[in-house]
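# step 3/5: fold
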Amino acid sequence: MNRKTLVLPAVAGLLTPVLAACGGSDSGSTSGDAIVVGTTDRFTATKEAPAPLDPAYAYDVGTWNILRQSVQTLMAQPKGEGEPVPDAAESCSFTDSGSERYACKLREGLKFASGDPVTAEDVKYSIERVLRIDSSSGVSALLNTIDTIETQGDRDVVFHLKTADATFPYKLSTPVAGIVNPKDYQKDKLREGFEIDGSGPYTFKADVEDGAITAATFTKNPSYKGSVTLNNDEVELRSFADADAMGEAIDKGDIDVMTRTMSPAQIQKLDAGDDDKAELVDMPGLEIRYLAFNTDAASVKDKAVRQAMAQVINRGELVSKVYGTQAEPLYSLVPATITGHSNSFFNRYGNPSADKAKTLLAKAGVTTPVKLTLHYTTDHYGSATKQEFEILQKQLNDSGLFDATIQGHPWSTFRPAEQKGEYDVYGMGWFPDFPDADNFLAPFLDKDNFLGSPYNNSTVQRSLIPQSRREADRLGATKSLTAIQDAVAEDVPVLPLWQGKQYVAARDDITGTAYALNSSSTLQLWELGRGVSG
């Protein structure tokens, strides 16, 4: 079948969902059958990470996509693009001119799925709990501009911020700000395992085997009051070992929809119309991939080594050989489609050059070849990751300046090891928490960054990031945002590689695939419905 390409309007308000007074549409799936969605995301509980689905810990696109269906937030990102809209809240706004006081009023009669009322105190408890636990995932840093939280009666919450933060409404739309019931979540301890209790569009139940979710069932929550309309009564999310297994399942009719992560070969096949079982929908994406560094590690402590890598790596070759038209080279942490983007790495390093890299290393007195191990995760960003790292290894070694090896690890061990600083160089991906340049910079560069990176640039942390957050008009933040990106290109604590599109494939009786993902790669299961097969 032919591919559908979506270009979503970026005008705030045009795509605001119709408010659902009593939990959305009653239409649901016309057949009564659950819509089955496939993913290659793995959801595991380990000794190092025993609470993968606790909002105070979860901080990757897979677990957030589970939480977004089941745990409600004051604000929500719209199904297309634009400013956040109220969800658990009836209304929210800054009440001062300096973006330091933010007030929300909860919807009347809001309830958890258990039937317990949702109050302003529950909101305060939930967010203070995240800050108190301050988990190793680094997710609490998203809320680090909060000073105090005040409640007024059962429905009014006021956030007093330490500094101006025009991005704060976006942060309240992320799962870290999810509202949880104090009966189910202790104030100073993570909730281990795979249970979730909230007031979101769906209730959640996991099928678990050997410490991992094999399938998860999302059932329409009759108590939900919020901004989205549900087009189905039940969705099942199944986790597959790899993209090939997921592809076989949709061909057999065992699943209805494929989400992340399809392989480049699958996408090419669907794009060419060679598969009559499923239809491909591609959408603009904000996913980025990058190399990160433990800047205290001996092998890469000298920034000349990191700069030389930036000078040698050929992004165009990497993208063309692995991803083709599914990605494009990226020369900043901020994607090209985001306000404030600057091609800082290209401006500084230009085209790949081993000679220029050799000069950088020689001036710094670095002995070559520099021995490096590049670490990557085998089961989190798709099957093409290994090939990507094989090409990176070859590019570095062909320069004669590096002696690079590569090593793959499952995500369950990769992420904790990275956070502990066990890898000198490692590959990561980033799906934005919200579509603003701040969210492609602060999480990597601010104090208590989510990588656990020792890199510290006081000018960026104390001056440039706060300056950028003062600008309610994000065009006004361009100067400070560009300065941050230039600092990254100079010091190279991270090395951006590419920016990708996002894809969904579905059998032809499934509707709503156009909005199954929003611009931040948020999975919106409520958009899916079952129509009539063509």
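# step 4/5: annotate
DSSP finds 14 helices and 20 strands in the chain.
# step 5/5: archive (pending)
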